[in-house]
Design a protein that fits this description.
The chain is of the alpha/beta class. Helix content is 33%, strand content 28%.
Amino acid sequence: MKIVKFTAVFTLYLAGTSALAMTCSSSIETVNNWGDVSRLCDNFVEDSEHSVFFVDIDGVIINSFYRLVDEKIPEIIQLLREKPNCDVVALTSRVDTFADKTRENTSKVGVQFSNDFFKKDGIILSNECLFEAEWSCVRKRSAYKIDQAGGIVYTSVDKENFPSDISLDEFSFFGYEYGYWFDISNSPKGVVMKHMIDNCLIERPDRIVFVDDNKGNVESVFSSCCELNIPVLSIYFCTKEQQTIDETIYAE
């Protein structure tokens, strides 16, 4: 376990916002097992009045064979949910069309999320353009889906699932194939996190823990939470093999 030393670009970003980061009492950590996730989280939320544990699904909870990454995960998540004023929510980039399948995947491995956390349900669309699509210089509106009953938030929304009265011109879509072909709108997790906290939660949290196996998502959520002045523990979850690859790449 160690504090992540990111690329030069992110190091410069942190240097430019160090005062804000310190105000947030926030940090970014790298771990390769759920024992460390649990210890870090317990220490971070110990004196919190309302904390939220956001966690990715694929590569963090279940692997490509739909089996648990760590057999202790259901117990750790249940213990977190039993803490006073602590919610556990999944934040996934899976397409919202797979909502039923996703619930089935997590239920089969014994993982349950908080289902009384949101004041809104269904597809959420931002009123303004919040991020710049990677393939254009045009800022786009964000779209995501809240599955209230399942305690899962989807950052990828199938074009076919958008409300029929919505103009799609201000949203960014790209092709995605997963046994089926979709045109999806995929919003950065940090953008979704910020909009969701401002618009969709019953109660604003005073601490956020976020766990993901994508380094870009970890940085994005960290940045958004610091902008909101909410202390965040953003955890990059990776195997020792992946960590070695990362260190090799960023050392070049």
